[in-house]
Write a structure and sequence with these properties.
Blueprint lengths: L1 H26 L2 H6 L6 H10 L10 H37 L4 H33 L9 H23 L1
Helix pairs in contact: 3-4, 4-5, 4-6, 5-6
């Protein structure tokens, strides 16, 4: 009985947190959303991914290799979390632009929103897989999300340029 109450309260807290988060994004203007986007160093992520199979790890005992791979997994989680947050910000910017009366701006917003949601889904899947790596460190970190995330930056730059042209 008490366990059901705890789960119910937890569900209410999660729903309240989601509502507050959504409310904050609705109140921000495009410049504030854009300012929250942080650069993700993809070449460093690729180097981290290659470190999972480094030759020097083969000479170490299995227990140390698992510990090192878990540390690499935590580093990969940080990259993926930033990508997940950025993709959400890109989606919010795209949704805001898609409601514009300007047809070109609305089209660019819809394109950005679609790609951002795909990137966020890919990042979510990669986060889940990377969390599994922390438990089972023999697996490899996935980089399937990288091309999808890179594809988001072109429509974002186009939308940014359109906003700048309208402001000038």
């Amino acid at each position: 009985m008490t366990l059901a109450i705890y789960f119910g309260l937890m569900a209410l807290l999660v729903a309240a947190a989601w509502l507050v988060h959504h409310w904050r994004h609705v109140r921000m203007d495009a410049a504030e959303l854009e300012a929250r986007i942080r650069q993700v160093d993809l070449p460093c992520f690729h180097a981290l991914q290659q470190s999972f199979d480094a030759r020097c790890l083969r000479a170490l005992p299995p227990r140390q290799v698992r510990a090192i791979r878990r540390r690499f997994g935590v580093g990969a989680l940080e990259y993926l979390w930033r990508v997940w947050i950025n993709a959400g910000l890109y989606a919010a910017l795209g949704q805001r632009a898609s409601r514009s009366a300007d047809a070109e701006l609305a089209t660019a917003g819809r394109e950005l929103t679609q790609l951002a949601f795909t990137a966020r889904l890919q990042a979510s899947l990669a986060l889940c897989r990377t969390l599994a790596i922390l438990i089972f460190p023999a697996q490899q970190v996935s980089a399937a999300w990288v091309p999808v995330y890179q594809a988001v930056e072109k429509p974002f730059a186009r939308l940014h340029d359109l906003y700048a042209a309208r402001a000038a």
